[in-house]
Amino acid sequence: MTPLLTTRDLRKNYGGLRAVDGVDFAIMPGEIRAVIGPNGAGKTTFVSLICGRVPPTSGQIVLDGNDITDLPAHDRVRRGIAYTFQITSVFSALSAYDNVALPVQRTLTGRSKGRLHAGVMSALERTGLADRADTTAGALSYGHQRLLEVAMGLALKPRLLILDEPTQGLSDGEIESFMQLAREIARDATVLLIEHNMQVVMELADRITVMNAGKILAEGTPEQIRANAEVQRAYLGTE
Ligand code: ATP
């Protein structure tokens, strides 16, 4: 099987700081991949490079065999890379429905009204928010706002959905529902998530990439990562 996405010697420097320092990475279609690592390891910068929010200093990003390194973010969305970020991207004055519709209208131009509506409602239904479609996003609970972010990504019909700390601030019950949702999403898409909750990582991920100081420290199944002494020292032991 060929990877959906690969990066080759990907680098991002901020002045003298090597935030992402030569990352070779591959993710297979249908996989749920967790990226873990201590604060400042470069996780957010790495996924920001993949979705085109920041340009790399050097290296290559390949999607389905095509070099997308220099493509602007909206073109990557059109090619199937969608993301939701830590810093909440929800417009609190707009309804849940409009929050989901807006990114679709902005990036997937030329959709008929009927198709747009169907796509928005399907994303709201999958995230359990359909009955809150008309609720102002700011009036939703924190957990529902996080789910709304996932719905915003899902409505873009991604092949690769990138989630930055999706369970942060969620209750145990909400985390459980999120994991079910992620598994369901992975039936027809690939999921790449940055996650600090190790229970979620170990239960949900097919494979784990451990980053430290801008580099990949280790990669493997949850069992392999749990058993990796270097990871224990660098990260798990300090949790
Ligand atoms: P966290 O788990 O805390 O979110 P992270 O692993 O996602 O951390 P990044 O946010 O990618 O790490 O940061 C990696 C390094 O790059 C950090 O030292 C950070 O201060 C630095 N950095 C990130 N963005 C910028 C920027 N725009 N300008 C300068 N330095 C930056």
Describe this structure in words.
The protein is an alpha/beta fold and 239 residues long. 36% of the residues lie in helices and 25% in strands. The chain has 9 helices and 10 strands. The strands form 2 sheets. Strands 6-7-8-3-9-10 form a 6-stranded mixed sheet, sandwiched between helices. The protein has a 4-stranded antiparallel sheet with strand order 2-1-4-5, with helices on one face. Helix 3 (96-107) packs across helix 4, helix 3 packs parallel to helix 5 (142-154) and helix 4 (113-126) crosses helix 5. The longest helix is centred in the middle third of the chain and has 14 residues, at 113-126. The structure holds adenosine-5'-triphosphate. The site of adenosine-5'-triphosphate has 11 residues, from strand 2 and helix 1.
SSE arrangement:
Layout: E1 5-14, E2 17-27, E3 32-36, H1 43-51, E4 58-63, E5 66-67, H2 73-78, E6 81-84, H3 96-107, H4 113-126, H5 142-154, E7 160-164, H6 172-185, E8 190-194, H7 198-204, E9 207-212, E10 215-220, H8 222-226, H9 229-234
Parallel strand pairs: 3-8, 3-9, 6-7, 7-8
Antiparallel strand pairs: 1-2, 1-4, 4-5, 9-10
Helix pairs in contact: 3-4, 3-5, 4-5
Adenosine-5'-triphosphate is lined by residues 14, 17, 19, 37, 39-45.
Query: Portion of residues in helices?
Result: 25-40%
The SS-based structural class is alpha/beta
Bound compounds: adenosine-5'-triphosphate
Kindly report the spatial arrangement of strands forming the biggest sheet: 6-7-8-3-9-10
Helical element count? Answer: 9
Following the backbone from N to C, one meets helices and strands in this order, namely EEEHEEHEHHHEHEHEEHH
Strand content: 25-35%
Which of globular, elongated, flat, extended, rod-shaped describes the shape?
A: globular
Beta-strand segment tally: 10
